[in-house]
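Ticket #163: bound-state structure for zinc ion.
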Amino acid sequence: MDVFSKEKRSQVMSSIRSTDTKPEMIVRKYLHANGFRYGLHNQKLPGHPDIVLRKYQTIVFINGCFWHGHKGCRHYTVPKSNTSYWTAKVRRNVERDAENITKLKSKGWRVITIWECELKSDIRENTLANLVRMLHQKAVEYDTTAPHTIMAAENAAIYGSDD
Ligand SMILES: [Zn+2]
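RESOLUTION: The complex was predicted; output attached.
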């Protein structure tokens, strides 16, 4: 059984969802400290991107592994009660994310998704360094659908492959 009632779970989940979440702040601070300037929560762009780096034609989403259904992630665990409700909800988010990314790409944006699990303290530095590296490599095509995209190699080295 879920440790929370349905109401409490909703409350817990929506508090996780709030705008200036800690993972996002980690990324913002790092970018800022490295001289990057960006816009925040752009309401005019599809998906209201967390971070918009116009100079680099790049958008960065910082996704919670639960809400955005991080495929293959050990941190994406569906609550054991109201399972179908949460599964459907997360599936809708995943579909919406994919649509938004398609729209953004068609407008010429490069889209980078950083997953919350990629910002855990032991791998955070690598993730952020890789992000900066990618920002400087303008032409790199980035596969946002793959799990642990930024950290794939590093994660595999640390934890073994998820496949
Ligand atoms: Zn994850």
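RESOLUTION NOTES: The pocket of zinc ion is lined by residues 65, 70, 73, 75, 115-117 (CB under 6 Å).
TICKET STATUS: resolved
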